[in-house]
Every structure is written in C-alpha cells, then in structure tokens.
Amino acid sequence: MPAVIEVRNLRKRYDDKIAVDDVSLTVQEGEIFGILGPNGAGKTTTVECIAGLRTPDRGEITVCGLDPRRDRAGLTRRLGVQLQAGCLPDRLQVAEALELYSSFYPAPADWRALMDDLGLAAKAKTAYAKLSGGQKQRLSIALALVGDPRVAILDELTTGLDPQARRDTWALIEGVRSRGVTIVLVTHFMEEAERLCDRLALIDAGRVVAVDTPAGLTERARIEQRIRFRPSRPLDDHLLTSLPDVSGVTRRGEFVIVDGNDNALNAVTTVLARNRIVAERLRVEQASLEDAFVELTGRHLDAVGPDAK
Amino acid sequence: MSTLNTATATPFTAAHGSATWRLVRAELTLSVRDKVGPLWGVGCPLVVLVILGGVPALREPVATGGGMTIFDLYVPVLILFNLAILALTALPATLAGYRENGVLRRMQTTPVGPARVLTAQLAANFATALVAMALFLAVAGLGFGVDLPQNLAGFAVAWLLAAAALLSVGLLVTALAPGRGPAAAIGTVLFFPMMFFAGLWVPVAYMPPVLQTISHYTPLGAGMRAFEEAYLGQFPSAVPLLTLAAYALGCAVAAVRWFRWQ
C-alpha cells in the first residue's frame, strides 16, 4: 500500500521547551493510524505540523505527496482536520455550518447526507452553543469530512465524552474508514487505540517509542501473565515455583498470585488438577496496551509528560 | 490568495454560491442574531441624533457653515460615528473573538484563505453601515427636515471611501492586537481621538488651525470634510478622498499581511 503521510525526523520547539524531539512515521493508505501517548508527549504538535498549521524546526513531511506548508490549497482539499481547539460561532446552526464549510471546497461531499450519517439531522437548526459535547464532536467530524478528504486527522476526539458517546464515536470512525478515508487518530485512551487502530505509534517526550499493531506492541513488551486464584485447600508454594514457566509466586491473603510466561496458566492448572486443588475465583491478567506502554516508556499513560502544556 | 481553479468547480458548488458570499451571509445572519452590533452600532447613534434634533439651539445656522445648522453638521458626524463604532469596536471584537476561541483555527484547515475571511467581515459590516446610513438620512430628513446632501454622488463616494478606510483600520487593529481584550482596548483608544477630529464634541470649524490640519488627515476628519463638501453641493475635493483611499488601501494590505489564524 502506498504511504499517504510520511514524517521524517520532525522536530519542533516552543520558546524553551521541545514539544517534538524526533518523530518519524509513515501512514499507509486506508488504515487507521493511532498516535498514542501521555499528555504533553507531542502528539498534537505532530499532527499540527502534518496539517501544515505549524512550521517544523527540522524534518520533512509529505501528505499525499504535498508539502503541508507550501501547498496549502492542495493539502486542505485532501486533508480533513478535526482539532482539539477548533470551534464555531455560538449562534451558527448545524446545517448552516455544514453548508458554509462545504462551500469552501471545490468538490465537497454532500453535507446533507453527512449530517444524516452523523445523526445530526434532528439538530439541523440547533445553534452550536446549544449542542451537547457528543453532538459538537460529531459536527466536528462532519466538518472534517465535508471536503470529501482522502485523509482525516482526528485529535482527541473522545476526550470529555461519556462512555456511551465514546462508543458511538468509535462506530462512526469505523464507518468513515469504510468510506476509504485514511485516518490519523490522536488519543491517550488505550481502549480506543486497541479497539480502532490498525497500527499505532507510541510517543513519549517528543519521540516515537515504537510503531506497531496493538497486538505487536503488547507482544514486543514481553509482559508476563499474572494468574490469581484462591486454592480450595492449602497449597505448597514449591509445587508452583518448581515449574519452569513460572517466575514467581506471592500470597495476598488467601489468594495466590503466580507470575509467568504464556504457558504458565497451562502448567499451573495441570499441577493443581494433579493435586486435586480447585482454583477458585481464577483470574488471568493479560498484558494490555497500557502495560506495553509502561514497559516501553517506563511511564504511565495517564501520567503527565515533562512537556505538558 | 487562493489558487482555487474555478474551472474545476462542480455544478454542486456553483449552485450553492461561492465561499465568500456564503461567509458574508453567515456573518450577517450571526450579527443579526447577536443583536449587539446592530443595537449598539446603529441604535446608539440614532438615539443621539433624535436627542440632538430636539435641542432648539442646535437648529440655528452656523456662521462658517454656509447656511447649515449645527444639527445639520451632526448628521454626517453621526454617520461617521456609526462607521467608527462598527469598525473599531464591533469588527475587532468579532474577529479577535473568532481567533481566541478557535473559529479561525478551524477555518485555517480548509481551503478558505485570510483574504476571504477578512472580505466577509468587511462586507457584512459594510452592509450594516449602509442600512444605518440610510436610516440616519431618513430620520434626519423626515423627522427634522434636514436636507439630503446636495451632491448625492459625491456623498456616496465619500461614504464608501470613509467606510472602507475605517473598516480597514479595524481589520488592522484586529490583526495586530494579540487578543480580544487588547483589540477592544486599542479600538476604544483610537475611537475617541478619531471622533474628536470628526467634530463629535466640537465642530471642526471651531477648532484651532493646528487641530483642523491634523483633523484633515485623520480618517474621520477627512471623511467629515468630504461629507461637508457633498452637503454643500460640491463633489468632494481630492485631498480628503485620497486620504481616505490611502487609509483603506494601506490598512487593508497590512491587515492581510499580518493576519493571524491563532
């Protein structure tokens, strides 16, 4: 698949702090590419440079083969952007906004169909200020798509939404991708990245830590399984520690916690069965993208990075 | 500014009008919904006009006014007053507000360029000012028997140039001010001396010669001079008209040049 966005050695600093230190990534046509990292990691600055809204200090960016700074007219026709900081006049109505923005493009999408698709038809005559957070986000997506772009950048789309609205928005994004639009999704929600992204870049402190599929990233982090259960009768730790797949056993109250590799669960249940011990309230904690992030960066995702705005 | 190739525009867009026209319409709709612009920019000078019209002393002819009364002189002053409010307070507040809360930032991601955004603001305020001017002339004429300017064509040219000059100053203020607060402050600071030189408090004819000379080269002073000449039946002379045109052109070019989306 051809690359739609190519970023090489991007660097951008504001006054005294480095927002983006060294970011390189390639987005392929038709994929949902996630940019994931804690607040202040440089995600927004990266996409603002891709959208040509900021001039990088160093590095090269091409979007659909265009220079985002120099070829504004060409870029804005191919790239739809939903920005965190974007807004509309309070009294502008939904239909008016869509009609107005569609007039900015030489070959726009049908804004009425878009309004229907995004479930905004009932709000056509509602003023922007009177919309709920979820409705504003949906309008924001509609405005990013009204120019019928090949690529859409969606920045922190679901921040501030309740869980239901967030799930609805995810379904929408999948719908957008099925129209053939390549999507760059900026997020700091693991669940969102895991659910939506084909590939993602982990960004921390202005650098790309890893680029891979969500599954690839968790694998790469080589995180152990953690098995937790309450034995039906007393159990000698040695039974478990002697297993080659198990790396550690700890006790918490009446619970036993076993750490080990991918085969540990098999080995543990076999030993328990042989000794006629039932593992009550058995729980296996699988490595998540969250764990992968901690493993790869040494930092929690909801922790605020050193360059937080 | 834009490199849009109109030849490739689809019938879909053609049927829906150009972006500039859509922006102008949206701005007019919003300003009517906001009510602040029309009420403050049009209503306030109109109230002043009605009050001044009720003061008998102002209806006496002025010695240097060529047979005009002080009230007659106040009609063009208030037309300028209206232009100045729109240009120096309403326009910067709207545009700087758009910049502050991200409206312009969103537009920046579309093919619409600064020139069209500014043109829309200019046109919307122009339309409001035009309605206001017609209203002033009608109220002054029908309510208080003030004659229309004797040289109507000259008055129209002077008004157009004065409106263009003031609105361009307003655009430049917005371009240079860092935010909504500073834009409003600069607008207000400019507003009072400019209105002084237009003769809002003291008719220009009563000012000392130095102040009169300064007045002639301020946008409102030049506008006032052109209006007076049109009222007295002449086509306005070149100096005030060129002064206004220079302000309009210079400030508009500078405003586009230093326009900031964020």
Automatic annotation (TrEMBL), chain A:
It is a peripheral membrane protein. The keyword Manganese does not apply. One of its GO terms (cellular component) is plasma membrane. GO terms for biological process: response to antibiotic. It is found in: Cell membrane. Residues 5-230 form the ABC transporter domain. One of its GO terms (molecular function) is ATP hydrolysis activity. It comes from the Bacteria. The keyword Translocase applies. Keywords: Antibiotic resistance, ATP-binding, Cell membrane, Membrane, Nucleotide-binding, Translocase, Transport. PANTHER family: ABC TRANSPORTER ATP-BINDING PROTEIN (PTHR42711). This is ABC-2 type transport system ATP-binding protein.
From TrEMBL, chain B:
The keyword Transmembrane applies. One of its GO terms (biological process) is response to antibiotic. One of its GO terms (molecular function) is ABC-type transporter activity. It is a multi-pass membrane protein. Residues 36-262 form the ABC transmembrane type-2 domain. Pfam families: ABC2_membrane. One of its GO terms (cellular component) is ATP-binding cassette (ABC) transporter complex. It comes from the Bacteria. It is found in: Cell membrane; Membrane. Keywords: Antibiotic resistance, Cell membrane, Membrane, Transmembrane, Transmembrane helix, Transport. Its main location: membrane. The keyword Transport applies. InterPro entries: ABC-2_transporter (IPR052902), ABC2_TM (IPR013525), ABC2_TM_bact-type (IPR047817), ABC_2_transport (IPR000412). The chain crosses the membrane at residues 39-58, 73-98, 126-146, 152-176, 183-202, 238-259. PANTHER family: DOXORUBICIN RESISTANCE ABC TRANSPORTER PERMEASE PROTEIN DRRC-RELATED, TRANSPORT PERMEASE PROTEIN. Belongs to the ABC-2 integral membrane protein family. This is Transport permease protein. It comes from Planomonospora venezuelensis.
